[in-house]
Prior knowledge:
Blueprint: E1 4-8, E2 12-16, E3 19-23, H1 25-35, E4 39-47, H2 50-61, E5 69-72, E6 78-84, E7 90-94, H3 107-115, E8 118-122, H4 129-139, E9 144-148, H5 158-167, E10 170-174, H6 175-184, H7 192-203, E11 207-211, E12 217-221, E13 224-228, H8 241-254, H9 259-274, H10 285-292
Parallel strand pairs: 1-4, 1-8, 2-6, 4-5, 8-9, 9-10, 10-11
Antiparallel strand pairs: 2-3, 6-7, 11-12, 12-13
Amino acid sequence: MNPTAICFGEILWDVFPDGRKIGGAPLNVALKLQNFNITTSIISRIGDDLNGEIILDYIQEHQISTDYIQIDSKYKTGEVIVFLNNDGGATYNITYPVAWDKIELTSALRKIVVDADIFIFGSLASRDVQSKNTLINLLNNANFKVYDVNLRKPHYTLEGVLEFMILADFIKFNDEEIEEICILLNLKTASLEEQIMEVASYTNTTQICVTLGCKGAVLFIENNFYYNNGFTVNVVDTVGSGDSFLAGLISQLFLKKAPQQSLDYGCAVGAIVASKKGANPEILDFEINSILKQ
């Protein structure tokens, strides 16, 4: 039987200068996990509007259950205005409040979380007290908890990030995020490895990953470090590449692949997504196998 995963948080429209695409980090991760043989559901909330209807249809087309996506009659489906620089890097203007800020706790949500092998969440969905309280309740029922830190100013507090870091079994940062956290915690570190070990000690977390953009990623598991130096691609935009990396990495770890093999796979998936437009382009097996040969 395939492992099962739950992704919690935002579903929204990424609005680019030349069009829009369906996204949100939890949905991006869920779509890729489903492709990588992890049976995945998503917990979120959308507005009772056309934007929400289109999202539901899209998710159903990708064979992911919409049973745990709530409909809000007051708040609209979320949107993010995406700004791209000349290198394809993205910054975001995230609308607030919207439907996914108001996810309500139900017995059905508790049950599906208890039954799942993996529970994946990020910082953004905790910016509103309603969804944050629901998230904390579900974390108390979850098995293996994966925290994608994914800081988006001004939508987080240090106290909130620390609370979730301590609750997590696996933490994923990018290099800027872990540096910011170490500075805020006044952790004295001289290298990335020291940053990782200090955070691991502070949070009592034995599995940490740090992405390094085009330079790859570092994975820390049970006091061992694993490295990937990145793959060469022509970057179109980086939207969703970190989410796809995480899905690739976690899927392989839960399919019992070795840490180095899992890290390489995640980096390959993230690189391929960065070479295409939008957060959820189609990825074919031969593309992954080809880039892994670099």
